[in-house]
Amino acid sequence: MFLKRISLLQDQVPNYNQYPFNIPAIQVIDQLDLASPVTFFVGENGSGKSTLLEAVADKCGFNSAGGGRNNTYETHAAESVLADYIRLSWMPKVSNGFFMRAESFYHFATHIDELQKEGADAYRSYGGQSLHEQSHGESFLSLFMNRFNGQAIYLLDEPEAALSPQRQLTFLRILHELVQQEECQFIIATHSPILLGYPDAQILSFDGEAIEEISYEETDHYKITKYFLDHREKFLKELLED
Ligand SMILES: Nc1ncnc2c1ncn2[C@@H]1O[C@H](COP(=O)(O)OP(=O)(O)OP(=O)(O)O)[C@@H](O)[C@H]1O
């Protein structure tokens, strides 16, 4: 793995009452140690996972709307304010990698189409076909299978968004091969109890007073999903009738 620590430059934070420094989990970051090639960010909606991931992506030099170092294109995505206030500690440093956010993947696909029109063989890295001509889930898997390789860091924001449960398992297989064979590092914000099950991953929860490591079985994703599947009728009766 390459990225070992994310630190917040607390003495330089201009205002703790303003976004992004007003997010509870973010404002108390001192040093966040990454202890495994696969780190998951988990937490409630709005707990700050994307904000931190985007800041890391920006600091890596990746397009904060999605892409690698060479993907320069305009979007409505704002610059990451937080990026100026974090420090990344590497051992060793890698510059290869990719930031994928499900919500702006459409714009990224358009950017690849434009590169192809300009004469570059841009589709080669994405399964030989426009990402717009593949289903949402197929285009995600094309990205993971064809574009991801070599020693690199991959920052993924909810990669499960378009993937069926079966394809999430396929994704885990690709992830495993990239970690084992290419020594890739992943930081993944996710709500998927399937992805979170990846063995030996570090799971960082944004739900407490500080970002802290928790086990798979301690995640709400596991607990709620398990309870739901084990007691579906009772659970829904309580939920819908009370
Ligand atoms: N550009 C912005 N300006 C002001 N507040 C913002 C901005 N972007 C996000 N926020 C707020 O910051 C908080 C954290 O948002 P963020 O997108 O990081 O959450 P998240 O944990 O990734 O959530 P989700 O699981 O829903 O994707 C939220 O309360 C959100 O409303």
UniProtKB/TrEMBL annotation:
Domain of life assignment: Bacteria
Compartment(s) of residence: Cell membrane
UniProt entry keywords in alphabetical sequence: ATP-binding, Cell membrane, Ion transport, Iron, Iron transport, Membrane, Nucleotide-binding, Transport
Recorded topology in the membrane: Peripheral membrane protein
Residue ranges constituting the ABC transporter domain according to the UniProt record: 11-232
Keyword Ligase among UniProt keywords: no
Main subcellular location of this protein, as a coarse class: membrane
Cytoplasm found in the keyword field: no
A Pfam family per the record: AAA_15
Protein name: AAA family ATPase
The species this protein was found in: Planococcus shenhongbingii
